[in-house]
């Protein structure tokens, strides 16, 4: 017998608006972040993410450390949802002296030249600047904490890892529509009926067979 409660919960999950699910993920990450103790080394004020601006851009970028730089807009909802996840990434690299996790307000008029130089058109845009270089590599991975940490480790040759509760939060990605569809298809394949036909979601709860069938 199938677990009807489980299938009903899955149906509710997929029927939930994407923006609500992403907001939930960010809230969970923020709660996890509150459990992380602050230390002196590697912390920029009250954040694990360095703020870059026109006054220090040329010192931070092109220096002796690789930099993961987020171009953000204060009004951008996607940037707001990324903020607690990005803090967890900063925490993972807190004591890594070869890496800086940083952000810059791309809407600041003083940063217009920087934004134009690196052809930033959407927010958030995340670029990796290798040590000693002003030639960035675009970070195009799905924006989960684990994916971002893995990306930086690959680029910098480091072995940083998420710590404590942050490791659990890393398993919850901010789903893009494409990622949502891939996950949905995987779930449908894993829960195919006995005839090998994937089941379709009944958003009112439960599932229906994917094969058509009659009923009068």
3D structure, described in words:
- The chain is built from 8 helices and 7 strands; from the N terminus they run H-H-E-H-E-H-E-H-E-E-H-H-H-E-E.
- 25% of the residues are buried.
- The chain has 216 residues and is an alpha/beta fold.
- Strands 1-3-2-4-5 form a 5-stranded mixed sheet, with helices on one face. A two-stranded antiparallel ribbon has the order 6-7.
- Helix 2 (18-34) runs parallel beside helix 4 (77-92) and helix 4 crosses helix 6.
Helices and strands, in N-to-C order? HHEHEHEHEEHHHEE
Uncertain stretches of 5 or more adjacent residues: 1-15, 34-42, 198-216
- The first-to-last residue Cα distance is 25 Å
Structural class by SSE content: alpha/beta
User: Which shape, going by the Cα principal axes?
Assistant: globular
Number of helices in the DSSP assignment:
8
What's the layout of helices and strands?
Blueprint: H1 4-15, H2 18-34, E1 50-51, H3 57-60, E2 66-72, H4 77-92, E3 99-105, H5 112-117, E4 125-129, E5 137-138, H6 145-156, H7 165-169, H8 177-190, E6 200-201, E7 207-208
Parallel strand pairs: 1-3, 2-3
Antiparallel strand pairs: 2-4, 4-5, 6-7
Helix pairs in contact: 2-4, 4-6
Key phrases:
216 residues; alpha/beta; globular; disordered C terminus
């Amino acid at each position: 017998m199938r677990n009807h409660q489980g299938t009903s919960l899955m149906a509710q999950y997929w029927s939930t608006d994407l923006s609500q699910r992403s907001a939930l993920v960010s809230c969970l990450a923020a709660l996890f972040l509150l459990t992380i103790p602050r230390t002196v080394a590697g912390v920029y004020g009250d954040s694990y993410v360095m703020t870059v601006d026109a006054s220090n851009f040329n010192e931070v970028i092109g220096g002796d450390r690789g930099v993961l730089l987020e171009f953000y807009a204060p009004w951008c909802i996607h940037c707001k949802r990324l903020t607690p996840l990005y803090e967890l990434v900063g925490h993972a690299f807190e004591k890594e002296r070869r890496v800086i996790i940083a952000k810059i307000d791309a809407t600041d008029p003083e940063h217009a030249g920087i934004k134009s130089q690196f052809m930033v058109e959407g927010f958030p845009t995340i670029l990796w600047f290798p040590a000693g270089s002003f030639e960035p590599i675009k970070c195009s991975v799905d924006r989960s904490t684990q994916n971002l940490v893995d990306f930086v480790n690959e680029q910098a040759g480091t072995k940083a890892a998420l710590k404590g509760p942050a490791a659990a939060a890393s398993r919850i990605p901010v789903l893009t529509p494409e990622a949502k569809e891939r996950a949905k298809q995987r779930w449908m394949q894993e829960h195919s009926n006995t005839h090998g036909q994937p089941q379709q979601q009944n958003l009112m709860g439960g599932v229906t067979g994917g094969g058509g069938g009659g009923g009068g």
